[in-house]
Design goal:
The protein is an alpha+beta fold and 195 residues long. The protein is built from 6 helices and 10 strands.
Length: 195
């Protein structure tokens, strides 16, 4: 009987170990779009409690946007001469430290499906990355997009090292998680979830 209990405990321990390893491997898949959830290591920095949509680039690098750090700035403040900008209801988000004076727009669907100026970040989510395309979105569908100042970039292998170092937790990306109606509790909702 003791041997059976020992075998069962060993099997249970092995199962938990494998589940943990497979869960980490599945969660750390950075070959497709994912959400990065900041660990406590980022406390006191601009990435404190950040949630970042990250997308791989063909050269092994990654690019992303912090999706849960709204600023006190509106698009109307940034572009007072552009009447349509004053119609944007929400704030501009701090997308990241790179190109921090450039405005990017993320939206659930392309304003024109054949528009080559939009970059698909993941199925159902596109980004306008150049000024004329962002301006066109502001003029034609201002509240269909969320606007970001700047972005985040990692060179090849850099993000993988940060995830291995447990600076970031990796979660599956969904359009609803990237563009939720309210972002105030997004970090809390994702920080404690298991994959």
């Amino acid at each position: 009987m003791k041997r059976l209990q020992h075998v069962m405990r060993s099997a249970a321990l092995l199962w938990l170990l494998l589940a943990g390893v497979l869960g980490v491997a599945r969660g750390a898949d950075l070959s497709r779009p994912a959400l990065l959830v900041a660990s406590e290591r980022w406390a006191g920095t601009p990435f404190e409690r950040a949630v970042i949509l990250v997308t791989p680039l063909p050269n092994g690098a990654h690019v992303g946007f912090v999706v849960n750090h709204p600023t006190q700035v509106t698009l109307g403040n940034l572009f007072p001469e552009q009447i349509a900008a004053s119609h944007v209801v929400g704030p501009v988000y701090a997308g990241g430290p790179m190109l921090s004076s450039v405005v990017f727009a993320l939206m659930r669907a392309s304003p024109a499906p054949d528009d080559s100026k939009l970059v698909t970040l993941m199925p159902g989510l596109v980004a306008a990355i150049d000024g004329p395309t962002v301006d066109r979105i502001i003029e034609t569908r201002p509240n269909d997009a969320r606007y970001f100042l700047g972005l985040v970039m990692w060179s090849s292998g850099e993000l993988e090292d940060a995830v291995e170092d447990r600076s970031w937790e990796v979660r599956p990306a969904t359009v609803d998680a990237v563009l939720p109606e309210h972002t105030a509790d997004l970090w809390e909702a994702l920080a404690g979830t298991a994959i």
